[in-house]
């Protein structure tokens, strides 16, 4: 089991987990989510191809419309 940070909080994850499955686990809908991994924005089309490593830092941002 690995440990990563998601929005500043420590979370255990299984070895080999990708970004797409992490987003599914943490967000009801992923259509308006932006993801930053270790300070770098990761485009949605790459989420399934990037596997998390011990001590990775993930920030999830939800787009909110308003005025």
Can you walk me through this structure?
This protein has 67 residues and is mainly β. It has 1 helix and 5 strands; from the N terminus they run ββαβββ. It has one helix spanning 19-26, and strands spanning 2-6, 9-13, 33-37, 40-41, 57-62. The longest helix is centred in the middle third of the chain and has 8 residues, at 19-26. The N and C termini lie far apart (43 Å). The relative contact order is 0.31.
Which value, in Å, is the CA radius of gyration? 12 Å
Amino-to-carboxy terminus distance: 43 Å
**Strand tally, please?**
5
Q: What is the element string, with H for helices and E for strands?
A: EEHEEE
What class would the helix/strand composition place it in?
mainly beta
Q: Enumerate the strands of the largest sheet in spatial order, edge to edge or round the barrel.
A: 2-1-5-3-4
* Total helical elements: 1
Mean pLDDT value? 92
Which runs of at least 5 residues are low in confidence (pLDDT < 50)? Answer: none
Largest sheet: 5 strands, mixed
Q: Helix proportion of residues, in percent?
A: 10-25%
Task: Please report which band the strand proportion falls in: under 5%, 5-15%, 15-25%, 25-35%, 35-45% or over 45%.
Answer: 25-35%
Globular, elongated, flat, extended or rod-shaped: what is the shape? globular
Summarize the structure.
InterPro entries: Beta-grasp_dom_sf, Mopterin_synth/thiamin_S_b, Thi_S, ThiS/MoaD-like. This protein has one helix spanning 19-26, and strands at residues 2-6, 9-13, 33-37, 40-41, 57-62.
